[in-house]
Amino acid sequence: MEPVLIVLVVLVVVAFIALIKTIQVIPQASAAIVERFGRYTRTLNAGLNIVVPFIDRVRNRIDLREQVVPFPPQPVITQDNLVVNIDTVIYYQVTDPRAATYEVASYIQAIEQLTVTTLRNIIGSMDLESTLTSREVINAGLRGVLDEATGKWGIRVNRVELKAIEPPTSIQDSMEKQMRADRDKRAAILTAEGQRQAQILKAEGEKQAEVLKAEGEAQAAVLRADGEAAAIRTVFEAIHDGDADQKLLAYQYLQTLPELAKGDSNKLWIIPSEVGDALKGLGGAFTGLTGGVNGGAVAAPSAAAASQVPTQVPIDPAAGPRPVDTEKGAARPRVDPAREYRKIDPE
Question: Which long-range contacts (CB under 8 A, 24 or more apart) does 71-74 make?
Answer without folding.
Answer: 71/112, 71/115, 71/116, 73/164, 73/166, 74/116, 74/119, 74/120
